Amino acid sequence: MQYREFGNTGVKISILGFGAMRLPTKEVEEKTVFDHEEGIKIIRRAYELGVNYFDTAPYYCDGESEIIVGQAIKPFRDKIYLSTKNPIEDESGEHWRERLENSLKKLDTDYIDFYHMWGINWEAYENSINVPNGPMEAALKAKEEGLIRHISFSFHDKAENLLKLIDTGNFETMICQ
User: Which residue of the set 60, 81, 115, 125 is catalytic?
Assistant: First the structure.
C-alpha cells in the first residue's frame, strides 16, 4: 500500500481509503438489513491489506455505518485514522457538540481523527458555522479537549469558494464530492 500526507496534518494515510457509505446487506424475514458481521469482515480485511483511513457518517447505511465501523476497528483503533462527519443542521455549537458526542458513542471511541463539517459551502460557513457560539467555536473546543484531532470539511460549492474556505485557515483537511 502506498501512503500520502493528508492535508497539512503530517499524517500519512493510505491512498486507498475505505468509505463505509454502502455496506453489505442480507435478507432477514423478507426484510433487507445491514449485515454487521460481513461489514466487519470487509473492514478488517481492508486493514490487513494496508488501508489505514476509514470514512463513515451518521446517516450512512440508515444510521448503522458508524456502529459497524466502530465495531470493526476496535482491535486496531490506535493504528488507523477514523473520519466521520457532522451535518451542519443549524448555527448552534451546542447542537454540533451533541452530534459529535452521538458519533463518538456510536463509534465506541474516545476521539475522531478527521471530523468533517459535512457538505458545506461558503454560505453555510459564513451564516451557520463561523458565527458566535456556533459550530466552528464548538469544533475548536472539541479539538482542544482531544475529542477530535483535525477539523475538516467536505465540500459542495463552486471552485472559488473552495479556495475561500481553505484560506480561512480553520480547516486541516477536506474531501470533495
Answer: 60
Per the structure block, which three cell numbers stand in for 67?
456502529
The DSSP bridge partners found for residue 34 are 25
Q: What's the pLDDT tens digit per position in 46-93? A: 999 999 999 999 999 999 999 999 999 999 999 999 999 999 999 999
How many structural domains does the chain have? 1
Confidence at 175, pLDDT banded by 50, 70, 90: confident
Q: Please tell me the predicted confidence (pLDDT) of residue 7.
A: 82
Domain that residue 90 falls in: 3-176
Cα dihedral 2→155→167→3 (10° resolution): 0
CATH code of the domain covering residue 56: 3.20.20.100
Nine-digit cell at 138?
464548538
pLDDT of residue 122: 94
Is 81 catalytic? The answer is no
Number of Cβ atoms within 10 Å of the Cβ of 26: 12
Residue with cell 457532522: 86
- 3 state SS of 56: coil
